[in-house]
């Protein structure tokens, strides 16, 4: 087995990964909960269209925040591979691939939001445009959950990598693995048992806690344990 990344390279990579992770958390939660969420009601097409048209900057900023998140996610995928490849090259590569697939899906899925915007804001919008725009907004939610299927697999692999690496306390690995299970179960419910999906939403607090804890640990990395 090759030696872990030498200091100070290891600490530098870990801290940079922590910065990107923090940006991902802030941008992702900000876009979904702070910016886009208050504008969308999937039971009210006309009300949703009116809310978006009344706050176009807020809607566009949500798209921009998601794009920032995707860009940071790609960078984080590469950095985490560099950090953990010494511990297990195969697992580290697998984790990077699954995270990058998630990144591509979420970035491409932003076109659903853009399509909704074009439908409700275009000149001479046709009858039914609001309803069709709502379909695209709902499709974006499903596309996001599809991306989280791959991120769930990534989180399970990352949990195993963190557990085995010796660089971090094993509790961080356990937390990431639990987050992975939550993502997989939540996305599965969204697609196959949507009637249970809303009841499962509080479980996502576990993912926020686990990922934020690991993010903070990366930010304050100095020496390998």
Automatic annotation (TrEMBL):
Membrane as UniProt keyword = yes
Pfam families with a match to the protein in the record: DUF4386
Q: Does the keyword Transmembrane apply?
A: yes
Record field: transmembrane: 61-84, 96-120, 146-164, 171-193, 199-220
- What UniProt keywords apply to this chain's record, in alphabetical order? Membrane, Transmembrane, Transmembrane helix
> This chain belongs to which protein, by name?
DUF4386 domain-containing protein
